[in-house]
Specification:
homodimer, alpha+beta, 2 domains, about 30% helix, DNA-binding
Chain lengths: ~240, ~240
DNA sequence: GAGTGGTCTAGACCACGCA
DNA sequence: GCGTGGTCTAGACCACTCT
């Protein structure tokens, strides 16, 4: 995948060092990094080189920079995580916030499809979270979320899971979700959709199949969301 | 929308100057810009400042830089335009290329919905392009594309339109499409879908509603694509 | 070898946040 | 007033392309 470097720019090395530190939890979410000057001195490079790396990491939304204050580990707060990866809106563009409306959690052996999606070992176990979500008080989304039980030990014993799981992954397990790959298609509502969403059997349903990737490109979560299609759209801006 | 600058960094001014030149067609797609040094001298700034701007424009995919050669206006080639904004794939991720399979073009008065979507005047006229597309020889997509007749004079008289309209917009009309806003939802196939796509009435259809924006954030094109849903997905990576 | 973009440095000054 | 990030400069050297 990655080609032979042959030549490895300084800022690339600095980049790897800093990413490693972040991954290893050298700083907690929300915590400030050392200043450009001190990082530069410590790593033996110029401030400009450190700056280039910090800017790149900021563009990747791993860090946040505030003039006059410092550079911080980006936090997957409820708000931010929600709007970064939650793409459901009203036709025309109005952003929506889903509320939670029922959830079940269980641990079981991984199925073949799950092992394939998440690159799991043959005897791996997974945590399955099933949740229904409402928008404006109406049932709208039914989600099945699958993660490796090994990666998230004890997650099934938590009393309540946050609305945005990604902030939990980050703060409790040190796993940063930085990107997702989604595939969207249309289906007809089944009897189970009728029970979960209150739609008629045979009405159109939008199905969103998402794999969430961590900073190290590891496949961390598989999530299939079934969305009632009248009054909602899946909205994306491509650039 | 835009706030008062109050303070306007040099590189911002240089950015605006260069974007204006590109928009005004100072260089043709594929053509090389002057070197960093000569731009710096001409604009009275340092090479580093010019570089920052050129890097930013490269990130926006408006320019391409090649070490040892120069900086070029990015071309919306068939290949690149296709893969940049065409998000249809096989489940699992395999990218697809659509073939054209029938097209009609007409000019008519804009409807209210079209005026709203494209910010058109009350008496505006539009060009409507209806096309069917096949994938692997099977009808798969039905598209209705609407653009302002004023923005694209004579486009309806062209003998044949390219597979990717965006390269035509760029080379013949100097309009660069840099982003799109898409809304995806599910519907049931109608009789017209049955005729165009060969699917049964009542089967699930993925509908993609896209507005394409030019460099100046102008709404240039409205496109509604109806996609047969078995065997195809709308695939996107969020970061 | 000449010319281009790519990396890196050292140092200056500006804008911002805070004590 | 101090420390932070943000902008800008001038100059050096490296890597790549073409002649």
């Amino acid at each position: 995948m990655t080609e032979t470097p042959g030549y490895r720019p300084l800022y690339r090395q600095v980049y790897d060092i800093l990413v490693n530190r972040v991954v290893q939890g050298a700083w907690r979410p929300g915590e400030a990094l050392p200043s450009e000057q001190s990082l530069a001195k410590e790593l033996g490079v110029s401030q400009g080189t450190v700056r280039k790396v910090l800017d790149a990491l900021t563009a990747e939304k791993l860090l946040e920079r505030r003039q006059g204050k410092g550079t911080y580990i980006a936090e997957h707060t409820q708000e931010r995580a929600l709007f970064r990866f939650f793409r459901i809106a009203r036709p025309g563009g109005e952003r929506l916030k889903p509320e939670r409306a029922g959830e079940t959690v269980k641990v079981r052996a991984a199925r073949a499809a799950e092992r394939a999606k998440l690159d799991l070992e043959r005897d791996a176990r997974v945590v399955e979270i099933t949740r229904n979500r409402s928008i404006d008080g109406q049932p709208a989304i039914h989600e099945v979320i699958v993660v490796s039980a090994q990666l998230f030990p004890g997650i099934e014993k938590r009393a309540s899971l946050p609305n945005t799981l990604y902030s939990l992954y980050q703060t409790e397990y040190g796993i940063n979700i930085v990107s997702t790959r989604e595939e969207v298609h249309a289906e007809l509502a089944t009897a189970s959709d009728h029970r979960a969403l209150g739609v008629e059997v045979g009405s159109p349903i939008l199905v969103i199949d998402r794999v969430a990737l961590s900073l190290q490109e590891r496949k961390v979560e598989w999530r299939v969301s079934r969305l009632k299609s009248d009054g909602f759209v899946y909205a994306v801006t491509l650039t």
